[in-house]
Amino acid sequence: MRAFRSQPGYLLVELIAAVTLSAIAVAALIPAVSGRSEQTRRSELIMWITDFDRRVRLLGLQEGPVRLELGSTRELTASVVRGGEPTLRLRLDADEVHLMDPEKGTQTNFVVFDRLGRSADYTVFIRTRGSRFSIHVNGLTGRATLNYEEPIP
Prior knowledge:
Elements: H1 12-63, E1 66-70, E2 75-80, E3 88-91, E4 96-101, E5 106-108, E6 110-113, E7 122-127, E8 131-137, E9 144-151
């Protein structure tokens, strides 16, 4: 013999089970999504800095020596040494940015690229909401590598 419910709808136990399973699924997805966005931000910053470095090198080949500077507003600018307004600009989506000379281990305000598009090695230190890291750029090749990574609690 089959048992029928007297009223249509869900039992309280069924509702509790559905809410519990939904909460477990959401709790499992939140760390994966938030960590992924910080990793994506780091990858984008490396890509932007590498692309900007290539454009500065090309400007140096076309126009002569170029000066790469870091402004107070987390903005990298490049201008031809012989004068004029900045030709290239890159605003970095970060909380804090520093331009460093890795040989001296000191902070610097600019890097000069010669007529062949070469420069001294330089490092861009970046602090975002979730981590601190640095991107080292080889002065001869323009290859950028992620050097240092420290999560912020």
